[in-house]
Amino acid sequence: MQQLRILYLDARRDKALQRALNKHGAVFYAQDLNSALFLMADNDFDYYFIDADVPESQAFLKHLRHDPQLTTPRGVVLLTMNDEEDCEAWAVDTFLSRDNAIDDISYVFSHLKGDRCESATVLRIASFNPEGPVRQLDSVSEHSKPTIAASEPADPEETDAREHLNLRHRKEFNGADTDATVNSAQPSNKARNMRLTLVGALLVVLGVWLFVAGPLSTKASKSKSKESTRKRVNAEAQRESKADQKYESSAPGSTPATTTTAPAPAPSPVEASSVAPTDTSEQPAPTTPPPAQPAVNHPPGVSIAGPTQVMRGQSANYSASGSDPDGDSVSFSWTSRTMCWSTPGLYSVSVTVTDSKGATGANSISVRVI
Predict the structure, then answer these.
(1) Mean pLDDT along residues 86-114
(2) Contact predicate 317/334, CB 8 Å
(3) Where is average pLDDT lowest: 75-84, 116-125, 132-141?
(4) What is the mean predicted confidence (pLDDT) over 260-268?
(5) Which has the closest alpha carbon to 90: 45, 38, 48, 30?
(6) Which of 27, 95, 284, 353 lies most in the core, judged by the most C-beta atoms within 10 Å?
(7) What pLDDT is stored for residue 97 in this prediction?
(8) Full set of structural domains in the chain with CATH
(9) What is the predicted pLDDT for the residue at 261?
C-alpha cells in the first residue's frame, strides 16, 4: 500500500504537530505559498494541513478545490486559533484548533478517507503492476476484452497516455530508474544539448582569444600605441635635423653651397670696352640671428608650520617659510604670527609670498577649534 503524502503549510513550524503527522504518512513541510507550490509541482498530496495565518491562505485553499490540474485530496484541514471557525468560508473539510491539534489528528485520518480521484486531464487506461506486465482494469472482464490485431496500428493518443501513466507509476515505485528510462528514450535531446554545449564552448574560446591575444587585446593596443609614438618621434627628429641644417648653412662663417652656372657668352669688343668689369663671385646672404628668448620667471613657493587643531581660547603659533626656484629674493605677508580663537569651528590661516620680479605664491592650512 502506498504511503500517504501530507503537505504541512505553516508559517511557524510546530515540530510536535509534524511528528504526529509523520505517524500517518510522509510529511512535506512548506513555510510559505511559494515553497508549497514548488512541492505540489512534483507531488500529488492526499491531505493538506494549512495554517490560517499564512498570507493569502484562504485564496490558496479555494485554489485547491477549483484547479482541474490538481488531484482531488482526501482531506483539507485548517489550523487555526479560533474554536468556531467557518469551514465553508475557508473551503475546507474541517479545522483543528492549535491547542488540541495533536489530539485530534487521528480524527482527521479516521473520518476523512474519501476515495482519491484522478485529475480531469488524466486519462487512465490501465494500472501498473510493479511485479508484472500492465493489466486491464478490474471492471472489464477477461471475455469482454477487445482483441487488437497485430497489424492494426495503435491509437497515438492512447499510446501516449499509456506511456505517460506507466512512467508516472515507475517514478513512484522505481525512483531513479524512471529517469534513466526517460533519458534513454530521448537521445535526440541529448545530442542537441551536446551540440549547444559545444557551440557555447567555442564561442567562449573565441571571446577569450579576442580579448587576450587577438586584435582587442591590451597587448595589441599597446604595440599600436608604441608604433605610432615611434613614428611621431622620428618625424619630429627629421624636422629638427632639417631646421638645424638650414640654420648652419645660413650662419656667418659657414661654407656657402657650391652652385654650377652656365658660362656667359663672350662680350663683343665694343661691349668689352664699354662694360666695366664686375665681381662675379657669390657673396653669402646676411642672416639675422634669432631673437633671444625672454627668461621665464617662476612663482615662489611657501609653506606654513603650526598646529591644525587647538582648543578655544588657547594660543597657537604659526610660521611661514618659502623660496624662489629662480633664486630671486622673496618677501612674505607675514613670517610668524600667534592666533587665538574663542569660538569653536573650522578656520583658515593663509600667507602670501612675492619675489623680486613680481611673481606671487600663496598657501593656507585649515585649523579646527574645539
Answers:
(1) 91
(2) no
(3) 132-141
(4) 54
(5) 48
(6) 353
(7) 93
(8) 5-111 (3.40.50.2300), 301-369 (2.60.40.10)
(9) 52
